[in-house]
Specification:
Layout: E1 3-7, H1 11-23, E2 27-31, H2 34-43, E3 49-53, H3 61-68, E4 76-80, H4 85-94, E5 98-101, H5 106-121, E6 132-135, E7 138-141, E8 146-149, E9 152-154, H6 158-169, H7 177-184, H8 195-210, E10 217-220, E11 224-227
Parallel strand pairs: 1-2, 1-3, 3-4, 4-5
Antiparallel strand pairs: 6-7, 7-8, 8-9, 10-11
C-alpha cells in the first residue's frame, strides 16, 4: 500500500485529504508544520509521496521542499494559492513534481497523485529485469531508481530522472522541447512553456556539482537538447 504524507496546517483540510485518500486505498500520514514534514520524510523511508502546502508554520513549504531535496527524491505535489507562471517555474526549479492550485477538487488531487506515482513507479523495473544505463560517468539504475555521477549519488526529481532516462536510452537523438515534454509529462506542449528549460537547467547544475569538468547535455539552439558527444 502506498503511503502519502500530507503537510497542511489547516486541520480540516488535512483531515479531508487524508480521509479521501484513505478511501481510495492509500495509507495516510499528516504533518501540521514544516519542521514535522521534513522530519517525517527523513525518518520514514516507506513514504511514497508528499502533498505539500506552501503556507506552513515554523518552516514554509518552499523551505521544506529545498530541505527535502538535499536528501530525498520523494515525489512532491505542491499545494498553492499562487497560479502565476513565475511561481510555477520557481516551484519546479526547487524540485516540485507537480502542483495544484487552491481551491481544488479532491478528485483532481487524486488524478494528480495517481499520475505522479505512476511516473515514479515507471522508473523502477522488477529485479529480474535489472537494467543500468550509462553515459560517460553518469549511470541510471532502472531497477533501484538510483542515479549516480562518478560513483556519487545524484538526487533527482521524478521528471528529471525520466528526462535523463529518455536521453540515455537514445544517446544520439536530438530532443526538441516538445518531444521531451510530451514524452515525460504526457501532455500537449505549449510553445511558451518553460518547464523543460527549467528542468534541463536543474539537471545540468546537479551534474556540474558532482562532475564539474564534464559536459553531459548540450543545447542545439532553435532545435533542442542532446547528449554531448565524446
Amino acid at each position: 500500500m502506498k503511503k502519502i504524507l500530507t503537510a497542511e496546517d489547516d486541520k480540516e483540510i488535512n483531515r479531508l485529504i487524508c480521509e479521501y485518500l484513505s478511501s481510495q486505498g492509500y495509507e495516510t500520514l499528516s504533518a501540521l508544520n514544516g519542521l514535522d514534514a521534513v522530519r517525517m520524510v527523513r525518518e520514514d523511508e516507506g513514504l511514497s509521496l508528499l502533498i505539500l502546502d506552501l503556507m506552513l508554520p515554523f518552516r514554509s513549504g518552499d523551505m521544506v521542499l529545498q530541505s527535502i531535496r538535499e536528501f530525498s527524491d520523494i515525489p512532491v505535489i505542491v499545494v498553492s494559492a499562487k497560479s502565476d507562471t513565475r511561481s510555477r517555474i520557481d516551484l519546479i526549479r526547487m524540485g516540485a513534481d507537480d502542483y495544484i492550485t487552491k481551491p481544488f477538487d479532491l478528485d483532481e488531487l487524486l488524478v494528480r497523485v495517481e499520475a505522479v506515482l505512476r511516473r515514479y513507479d515507471g522508473n523502477n523495473h522488477t529485479q529480474n529485469e535489472r537494467k543500468i544505463l550509462t553515459y560517460k560517468d553518469l549511470s541510471l539504475d532502472l531497477t533501484s531508481g538510483i542515479a549516480a555521477v562518478c560513483g556519487k549519488n545524484l538526487t533527482l526529481t521524478v521528471k528529471e530522472y525520466a528526462i535523463l532516462e529518455l536521453m540515455l536510452e537514445n544517446p544520439t537523438k536530438l530532443w526538441s522541447k516538445a518531444n521531451l515534454f510530451e514524452s515525460v509529462w504526457g501532455e500537449n506542449y505549449l510553445s511558451d512553456d518553460n518547464t523543460v528549460k527549467v528542468h534541463m537547467s536543474n539537471i545540468r547544475q546537479k551534474l556540474k556539482k558532482l562532475d564539474p569538468d564534464t559536459e553531459y547535455i548540450e543545447t542545439v539552439w532553435g532545435m533542442g537538447y542532446r547528449l554531448v558527444g565524446d
